[in-house]
Design goal:
Length: 133
């Protein structure tokens, strides 16, 4: 059974390194374009495909949106790893808020586990854009 790939691979989006800068549903300004609130964005897609894709040993990358999907799956895994079933809801929220504002490794950082799959930014503009992905 093949892994599930992102529906955004076929789109025409700005590329930073070899990752797409995809639209997201948010109320806050940032580098990402705004997504229509009635459709799923890349974050919704990552949450929907998380369980199925994290069980696969191999994942063939079919486009730049798949790299974003892999990155989000790694972040979701770290979130779930930082809490467990016995963690009270209030404590879990504090832990996840702390994790959300902490420095999570990004592609091209020495501590990022899958650097071989990601292209390093080519200039300072792309480095700044990738930092806020």
């Amino acid at each position: 059974m093949p892994a599930y790939h992102s529906q955004y691979n076929e789109g025409d989006y700005q590329s930073v390194g070899n990752m797409f800068l995809l639209p997201i549903k948010t109320k806050f300004r940032g580098n990402a374009p705004f997504a229509d609130s009635s459709t799923d964005d890349i974050i919704d897609e990552a949450l929907d495909l998380f369980r199925a894709n994290c069980l696969f040993r191999n994942f063939e990358i079919k486009g730049n949106a798949d790299r974003v999907l892999i990155y989000l799956i790694l972040f979701i895994s770290q979130c779930l790893g930082s809490i467990n079933k016995l963690t009270p809801q209030g404590e879990a929220l504090k832990t996840l808020n702390t994790l959300a504002v902490s420095n999570f490794s990004i592609p091209s950082d020495p501590a990022f586990p899958l650097n071989a799959m990601y292209q390093a930014p080519t200039d300072k503009f792309q480095t700044g854009k990738r930092r806020v992905l």
